[in-house]
Amino acid sequence: MNARRWTAGLLAAVATVALAGCSSRDGEEACDNSGGIIECAPDQRSAAPKLAGELLTGGSHDVARDRGQVVVVNFWGSWCAPCRAEADDLENTYQATKASGVTFLGINIQDQRDKALAFEESFKVTYPSLFDPPSRLALALDIPPNTIPATVVLDRDGRIAVVIRAAVKQEGLQPIVERIAAEKPAPNGSR
């Protein structure tokens, strides 16, 4: 229980960081922030930090090797009721979009490996998850999630396109993922 309070407090403190990749221009917001969803225009997106580490099932993964694909990153914990509620919607969105160059990656935080593995087995999660008990990867984001679950959509150039600070449903997430997947990557990966 203390770990959960610590994580909640730490993530709330980190949430006070400005949206570095989403600045305002001529008095207009470059990023739309409505209903717990922050979406940045392509020319206002910041690069994602290094998202790499040990996989929950063993081995390692680095999101940098997914460049060229849209990457949907979901922060979750087996102890989190909204995470359980969104698990099927995430898996269904993954299955519906993976043929269009979309991949998913979970990041399990503040958890025990056996409980996290049981969660993935119970919900038949087929995409990989990094095991990050101290939440270091969440804290490394320029646009950090301040709630768990949180979902971050990276564009094909590895930049933060969307941050969702709430549990997702397939009917809300899939159109966002499809819209980002339909964007053309910038020449040489920069805009």
Describe what this molecule looks like in 3D.
The chain has 191 residues and is an alpha+beta fold. The chain has one domain: Glutaredoxin. Helices cover 30% and strands 25% of the residues. The protein has 5 helices and 11 strands; from the N terminus they run αβββββββαβαβαββα. The strands form 3 sheets. It has a 7-stranded mixed beta sheet. A two-stranded antiparallel sheet has the order 1-2. Helix 2 crosses helix 5. The protein is globular, with a radius of gyration of 16 Å. The N terminus is likely disordered.
Describe this structure in a few short sentences:
With 191 residues, the chain is an alpha+beta fold.
Question: How does the SSE layout of this entry go?
Answer:
Elements lengths: L1 H13 L9 E2 L2 E2 L1 E4 L2 E4 L11 E3 L5 E3 L7 E7 L4 H17 L4 E8 L3 H10 L6 E4 L3 H5 L9 E5 L5 E5 L5 H13 L9
Parallel strand pairs: 7-8, 8-9
Antiparallel strand pairs: 1-2, 3-4, 4-11, 5-6, 7-10, 10-11
Helix pairs in contact: 2-5
Radius of gyration, in Å, reads: 16 Å
CATH topology: Glutaredoxin
| Major beta sheet summary | 7 strands, mixed
Tell me, briefly, the overall form. Answer: globular
Mean pLDDT: 83
The helix-strand sequence is: HEEEEEEEHEHEHEEH
CATH uppermost class? Alpha Beta
Query: Looking across the biggest beta sheet, what order are the strands in?
Result: 3-4-11-10-7-8-9
| Total helical elements | 5
Percent in helix: 25-40%
CATH superfamily: Glutaredoxin
Number of beta-strand segments? 11
Determine the N-to-C terminus distance.
44 Å
Provide the low-confidence segments as ranges. 1-28
The total tally of domains equals 1
CATH architecture: 3-Layer(aba) Sandwich
Give the DSSP E fraction (strand runs of 2 or more residues): 15-25%
